[in-house]
Amino acid sequence: MRFLLLAAALSLSARADDARWEQKEFDCKRPDNCEGAQCCQYGLAVYAREKPGAEVKEVKAVGQIDAPPEKVFQIVTDYEHQVGNMPYVQDQAVFTRTDAEVKLWAGEHFIESPRKNGMGWPEDLARYARISSVGTPLVRLPVRFLKLNDTVVWAAPVELFCEIAIDVRTRSPFPNTLYFGYTNGWFGYLPTARAFAEGGYEPQTSPFTPAAEGELTRQVVTFLQGARVP
Description:
The chain is an alpha+beta fold. Helices cover about 20% and strands about 30% of the residues.
């Protein structure tokens, strides 16, 4: 069984820009009896692009893994042996391990935000949309939370601009606050209000409006403050 692997190492900013992705490397796997490009069965392509105002490039890798889920999980979670097992990993470190009791808590919260004018919505996602009492189309964004002792993970089915995740982390009452994107689906991009003003591909294709940043940040932080109480 093959799975699509998408890994992105983001630079200091995830704002929209006009820079295009440039392919840097492609590790193509071919059968022993075939050498042409048309014989590529799967591989790993590495892309990079400049980020205006930042010294660090944005890098992403796209590839396929020809392995069952159990094997993928085994390799990805073998943190002590990432170098050698994972492509392009040059260093790894495990900061701490514990045998202490881990207390788990999970929660969910829907954040409603106006949908962009003229933006359609697929019927199979009807439960994630509604019309307000004044006739405003709304996106119902599901946000899930997982609390592990003093660490909390929050997740949403969007490609969130990193400034928003960093703001939530800064304002969170938890010592460790992590954001996971692309979870349980994908609604599209959720840019910052500044990115909407600047324009670009991500704001143009996003189903959200500039109000989404403030609504998401405020409600996620409020939810985390409530979850901090034992």
